[in-house]
Amino acid sequence: MTFTKPTDKAIINRMAENFLKMKKLRSRYGTLFFMSIVILTVQCIFLIVGGFNVYMLEGIVMNFLVFYFGTKKFDSPVAQYVLMAANIVALAAFIIWHPKSELLMRLGIVQHLYLALESYLFLRIGAQKKELSMELGYPYFNELAAYQQEKKEYEPEQRPAEFAPEDPVSPKEIAVPKEEMPYRRQDPAALSMDDLDVDAAIAGQSAQKYESCYNASERFSEQYMRKPKIVPEKTEYDRDLLYKNAARFKRFRLIQTGIWIIDIFLAYIAITDIFSLLSGDFMGFFKFFDLFGVIVATIVTVTCLDNKNNIKCALYAFLATGVFLTVVLLDVSYLAYFLILALQMLVTYKLSDEDKYLRAQFGYPYFKENMIRLQYADNSYHPEHAVNFRSSGMDEI
């Protein structure tokens, strides 16, 4: 899409701002989704352990309603206010008519307090999403989406049969038979276009084309059979910068290795706690959250370096999960455990910027002169950003 109007630059800047806002909204939705899954898992555990009690069943239904209306009915603030009021009433009911188990009572109070807060957050996010839905290019906010929204006419690639043009008439059908031309003149120099033998002309021209194509194919086949000559390309680069990037890459790998070692240690602690507590009481089931959190943190650290929004989502989700499990189970170890995972996400967020910088540098991922010469010799290396350090070519950077 080509922009020509003076206001098009302002439109592009506005879409860039809306694109960043949309990324933040998706990160918040992802955090709330993760927390809803955690609360649903805890509710299902207590539903089974508590003998299919109505307290947890009511909380599961309310959890589904809050998440459904928060994501699908984001443009309906009345529904969010109703759900907030319903959760506050349910919280008060738990205080008045609480179950005999103190653990169930504490969980019921915390779950409705969180669901009321989640409805309020969905209300805030829904207002922002509704505002963005009225902007040009929603929900992608790029030039292609804006063009498709502004386009008023659509021409399909395949036209219907009734609108298709007629088949072209062949020259043979256009040619007039010789017997219908009694006035045909025999002088070749005086022949007009109507008197030409079209069939013979087409046949002669086709023979010439075939001969030229055959000769060209022979030339191409000869060139194809030749062995390619590998000519090493001499590249110019800043060696000092290459050595600095090599040191930064080693430090980057060292930090990643340290994170993986910490994850293995945390996973070992979680597995040990699970087996030690399962033999005593059902509280050992909740240690599965520690193991699940370590697995998620490791996956995010390895695969999401190019997506900072997922890292933010995991950071907020780990903090919220640690606080929730600590309040419900009255065990500070959950808060400490998930706080370590949140700090890991913070370090991963910093590593994302470092990874982005290193990928854009010359010589990635080896940053060694011998490897660069070897890759250029077999023509297998294509840097993402090649910089010409000659003074005459600085304008081409």
Structure in a nutshell:
This protein has 397 residues and is mostly helical. It has helices at 8-49, 54-71, 77-96, 102-133, 143-150, 171-174, 198-225, 239-278, 288-303, 308-329, 332-359, 369-377.
List the helices and strands and how they pair.
Elements: H1 8-49, H2 54-71, H3 77-96, H4 102-133, H5 143-150, H6 171-174, H7 198-225, H8 239-278, H9 288-303, H10 308-329, H11 332-359, H12 369-377
Quick one: biggest sheet? Answer: none
Beta content = under 5%
SS-based class:
mainly alpha
Order of helices and strands: HHHHHHHHHHHH
Number of helices: 12
Give start-end ranges of low-pLDDT stretches.
1-6, 153-165, 171-176, 178-186, 384-397
The outline comes out as: flat
Helix content: 55-70%
Radius of gyration: 35 Å
Distance between the termini: 25 Å
The count of strands amounts to: 0
Q: Would you kindly provide a written description of the structure presented here, covering whatever features stand out?
A:
The chain is mainly alpha-helical. It has helices spanning 8-49, 54-71, 77-96, 102-133, 143-150, 171-174, 198-225, 239-278, 288-303, 308-329, 332-359, 369-377. Helix 1 packs parallel to helix 10 (308-329) and helix 4 (102-133) runs antiparallel to helix 10 (308-329). It is flat, with a radius of gyration of 35 Å. The relative contact order is 0.09.
